[in-house]
Amino acid sequence: MSLQIQNLSKSYPGPLRILNHLNLQMSTGESVAIVGQSGSGKSTFLSLLAGLDRPDHGLIQIDGQEVNLLNESEMTAFRGRKIGIIFQQFHLLPHLTAIENVMLPLEIQNRKEIFATAQDVLSSVGLSHRLSHLPAQMSGGECQRVAMARALVISPSLLLADEPSGSLDVETGQNIMDLFFKTIQEKKITTCLVTHSLELAAKCNRRFSLTKGSLVEIP
Amino acid sequence: MSPFFLRWIFREIKNNQKFTWFFILILSLGLTGFSVLDVFKNSLEVSLKNSSKALLSADLSVSAKRFLLPAEIATFEKQFKTHFEKTRVVEFFSMVSTEKNSRLVQIKAIEPGFPFYGELKLREKKPSQFRNKPVVWVYPELLVFLDLKIGDSLRLGDRNFIIENVIVDDTTQTFRTASLAPRIYLSRENLESFSLFRKGTTLSEAYLFKAPDEKIDTLFLKSASEILPDPEIEIKTSEEAGQETGRILGYLSDYLGLVALVGLFLSGLGSSFLYRSFVNSRLKTLAIQSSLGLQKTAAQLIDLIHLSLLGLVSAAASAALALLVFPLIQKLLSEFSPIPVQLTIGLQTMAVLFFMGLFGSMLICLPYLIPLQRLSPSRLFQEQTQVKFNPKPSDLLFYLPSLVCFWGLSIWQSHSFQVGIIFFISLIGSFLILWVLGLFFLRILQPKREKKLPSPIRQALFYLSRQRRSSSTAFVALALGALLINILPQLKSSLAQEIQSPESTQIPSLFLFDIQDEQVSPLQEKVKSLGFEAKDFSPLIRARLLEINDVAFERANGNAGFNTREQEVEQRFRNRGFNLSYRERLFPSETVIAGENFYGTPNTSPSKLPRISVEKRFAERLGLNLDDKLKFDIQGVEFEGQVKNLRSVKWNSFQPNFFMVFEAGYLEEAPKIFLSSLYQLNDEQKIKVQLEIVRAFPNVSVIDIDRIVQRVLQISEKMSFSIQAMALLSVFVGLIVLFSIAQYQVQSRKQDLNLLKILGAPSAFLYQQLIAEFFVLAFLASLLGAVISQLVSYILTQVLFGGLWTPNWVWPLITVFLIGLFGVLLAALTAWQVMQAKPRDLMST
Q: In this structure, are residues B520 and B824 in contact, taking their beta carbons and an 8 Å threshold?
């Protein structure tokens, strides 16, 4: 899967332009880390990549599909098939068990064999013993693994991760991120990771700093 | 109060507008039923008080269901310290006839001076011959019934009377809908000259007094009743007459009050749910405040003031809503009230409303407010992103004050400890049953893994089954609403069905009364000559109950202040004469339920006293048991009997039934009249037979049962209209509770629903999920409510009416459909709101 971003700009009411003629190209299986200060526009960047928001200018092409030309309904369907997202706060549905949370994206797309698929992915993140537990019955680390499994279960072309270890203690966070990098490397998933941690960023193929609306590559 | 507190409260209101508006909406709707009813009661009370003298047409009356003896009146008059003006009125039912038709009427024979207060407004202003000539004044409806006009003559007893005038307004008329026979006024002198009265004829005579300036107080009345101890003699002040007139409306308002309480209960349920959600959403803030040094008592004070403000605003809003319902109450009152009523929201109503708004809101929220004392800021150090509060089982105790108050309200509204407690237990019991069943049904909704279901429906069922606590509140609110709205029509239809065609008994076409002993055979022959048969001849003997088990049965005087309905009924029972009868067999409408079925068996009891059968409810009211000895005074002769069985009676059979029936062989010689009935007559035959009987036996009165049935149904229709309107308000409150809960949940679930969008769920998925959620919830709740309403109505009809239950599935199906439809509309609205939300908001949280 390839990702191509050209001349991407986005601003909200006010004088400040959040993203300013931003360019980025990613090849299949490549991982990129975006670092930046709070308010630098990292979340906006991820929202645009996920098709949750529309750019003012520019082009986002995922797997050859120019996503900003899709209408909302088409974008939703595209996102469901191609893009996996991991949030800092996990965002699991509280009334669904671990396996049901993971099955959810497959159910939305009416895929077959969803239980077995979800079970496999949960096993791959080390949670085969927690299938029937509700989020409230699991630790933060386990919840983030479930969130990771949910993002991976659709075999996404593009994985977007927003500070996946931000809500976890150091040790748990490290374990999660080890698993994260192991998985994306094994499955060759193109990944865009937003983080404050330079240590985590160092594990990605390339690193960028989002400053004044532009991406500056960190050597 | 420090400015900090005020600032904080207004910030709470400003930052939680959705909670504020919904809380006020739900509470004010719940209070509206109450405020409307209070306006209804107070306005009626004031109007009755103002019109009470006109209703009695005097300050004081002494009356009996017989002619009063001059000695009795003379003894009574000795009590007056000054001269009272006096006039006499005799009232009785009789037949009037023309050449072509006849009709039962209520005759009022009056003397000069009547009425002392109020007026008889006549249609034509012309000099009257009322005192000197055989003329009558009639109600306008009689002219229509008998096709007459002023100047025509009608026959009353064995004399003809000319209709001199028409009464267009009669302030002494008490209860319009209860009046089954139009009224005719004639001069009392005319009574002496014709043969309407025979021995035992049913009549009542009243002496009316106009007080010059003497105060008629309770003390005077007590001594008066000591002077005239005969319970058959009734001494009544104008104030009591007003209260009596309002009695039926009082019963109606009791039931309306109970229905309004259901609305208040639902509103309390919804408000408490909203407050619980509100508190949960503020736990983090509260923990932070506490960590910054805000005392918990100060934080709770802020919450209490906040709640008080919301309660007061709700009370004011409910008063405004009550104003909107005024036209409906006015319509209701015009149907029932004999006097014009001016509706006003008085200070008392406002005080009750503000009291309920203020303390009600605090009581409802107490179970969530007090346990907050345990909330520790240490929770802020925990790993969870949300601060959670774990309730303890002992927290349930904080619901007790609300329950106790609700119990008190039930008694206050029903004016009955018995009815209040039954209502309270039924409502709380229904709530618990529905809640448990709701939790059970919501639990079993959880889809099995192997079950193939469309994904949106699967997700909806997951949500309902796993978020049972919040779903169950809406479930119970709707189910209770559905239960309530279904019970009333079910009871009404069972009653109507039974009145029109009671099971196992046939309704007579005509009911005859005031038949003299010597008229029984000629009447039978007369009816036979017309091709019919007069059946069910039953003697009626008027008597006074002197003793029960050798203890004197005394007159009861009312207490000042709050009297329960049971106390009022007992007073009325004690202060009345009794109609006795005797029989050789049971009627088909009677069943012996306790004791011996003594009909046709020799009296072998050791006392050898005549055996009496007593109707079971009557026995309950008088506290009679099997083997109790009763002593009666029958026209000056003392007569004893012993209760040997208790009977249930189907009163709607319209057969001549009695509370107390002696075995045959003892009372045959007592002065009596007879009752009888005629069956299977069509309208034409009824007119003919009625006319023939009136001509041959002018003192005999005839009631057209069909007309009574229609009248009873009309009254029940009118009464149930008002109860139904109040029930609809309760259902509306239930729906608003569901709506508010749904709206509030949408807020708290916005993130979850956004997540579904991010995971690729199309709009249709979300619409389908929400519609499935709300439809299933509304449908299941209304279905369960409707089914349980059938069960409850069955139990009620067994207990109250002795088993008249007739299934009626049409209305329950309609309500289930409508409530389900409401669920779908609500879901569509909710889904539309979700669609407006921006999923990217999730990225920044």
A: no
The last residue of one of the domains, among B166, B199, B215, is B215
Question: For residue range A139-180, what is the model confidence (pLDDT) as tens digits?
Answer: 888 898 899 899 989 889 899 998 888 777 778 888 888 888
pLDDT tens for each residue of A44-56: 888 888 888 888 8
Answer yes or no: is B18 within a domain.
yes
Q: Is residue B132 part of a domain?
A: yes
Helix (H, G, I), strand (E, B) or coil at B554: coil
In a domain, B675, yes or no: yes
pLDDT surpassing 60 at residue B675: yes
Which of B385, B459, B751 minimises the CB distance to A167?
B385
Task: State residue B804's pLDDT score.
Answer: 66
Q: What is the pLDDT of residue B600?
A: 77
Within a domain: B223: no
**How far apart (Å, rounded) are the C-alpha atoms in residues B291 and A7?**
48
Tokens 């072509």 -> residue:
B100
Percent over 70 (pLDDT), chain B: 82
- Comparing alpha-carbon positions, the chain B residue that sits nearest to A112 is B452
Q: What is the pLDDT of residues B577-600, one digit of tens each?
A: 788 898 888 887 788 888 888 877
Interval B324-350: pLDDT, tens: 877 777 776 676 666 677 777 878 888
Domain match, B789 and B764 both: yes
Please give the Cα distance from B207 to B66 (Å, whole number).
Answer: 12
Cα distance between residue B804 and residue B801, in whole Å: 6
B72 and B35 within one domain: no
CB contact under 8 A, A93 and B755: yes
Of A218, A191, A207, nearest to A27 by C-alpha is A191
Asked which of B399, B428, B446 is the last residue of a domain, the reply is B399
**Closest chain A C-alpha to B382 CA, distance in angstroms:** 11
Burial label for B564, CB within 10 Å (0-12, 13-18, 19+), is middle
Closest Cα of chain A to B750: distance in Å? 11
How many other C-beta atoms are found inside a 10 Å radius of the C-beta of residue B607?
12
Mean pLDDT calculated for residue range B445-465: 83
Determine whether the interchain pair B761/A80 forms a contact, defined as Cβ–Cβ distance below 8 Å: yes
Do both B198 and B255 map to the same domain?
no
Task: Specify whether the CB–CB gap between B549 and B640 falls below 8 A.
Answer: no
Taking an 8 Å cut-off on Cβ atoms, the answer to whether B466 and A91 are in contact is no
Residues B141 and B49 in one domain: no
For the stretch B678-694, pLDDT in tens is 888 888 888 888 888 88
Nearest residue to B641 (alpha-carbon basis) of B665, B675, B620: B665
- In chain B, which residues have their Cβ closer than 8 Å to the Cβ of A80? 759-761
In terms of domains, do B498 and B546 share one? no
Range of the domain at B481: 416-502+708-845
Span between the terminal Cα atoms of chain B, in Å: 37
* Distance (Å, whole) CA B845 – CA B840: 10
pLDDT tens digits, B188-232: 887 766 666 666 667 888 998 888 765 666 556 666 667 777 767
Does residue B81 share a domain with residue B45?
no
Taking the C-alpha atoms of residue B828 and residue B766, their distance in angstroms, rounded to an integer, is 10
Same domain, B274 and B180: no
CA B545 to CA B631: how far, in whole Å?
A: 6
Among A74-83, B380-389, B656-665, B774-783, where is mean pLDDT lowest?
B380-389
Spatial separation of the C-alpha atoms in residues B569 and B261, rounded to whole Å? 24
pLDDT at A160: 92
Beta strands in A78-137 (DSSP E): 83-86
Number of domains, chain B? 4
B315 and B201 in a single domain? The answer is no
* CA closest to B839 among chain A residues: A52
